[in-house]
Amino acid sequence: MKLKEYLKENKITKEQFANSMGVSYGSVIKWVYGGRFPRPTALNKIHQLTNGKVTVYDFLQQVQK
Questions:
Q1: What is the value of pTM for the model shown?
Q2: Which pLDDT tens digit goes with each residue over 33-63?
C-alpha cells in the first residue's frame, strides 16, 4: 500500500504523520509524491507506524514507474 493511500484511508494528515515520525512535513510530502526515497531508518519507522501496511517494496514500485 502506498503511503498516500495509507494516510487517506486512516484519516491521518501528512503533518500528523511527520510529527509521529519525528521528521519535517516536507520530507513526508516528498515521500508521498515520489520526490525522495526514505532512508533505511525512516523506512523501518514507516513500516512500524503503519503496522506493516507500507513497506519498502511500495516505495520501490513508486520509483520504478
A1: 0.90
A2: 988 999 999 999 999 999 999 999 998 887 6
Model pLDDT for residues 11-27, shown as the tens digit of each residue:
999 999 999 999 999 99
Q: What's the CA gap between 47 and 65, in Å, rounded?
A: 21
**DSSP character string of 2-64:** -HHHHHHHTT--HHHHHHHHTS-HHHHHHHHHTSSPPPHHHHHHHHHHTTTSS-HHHHHHHHH
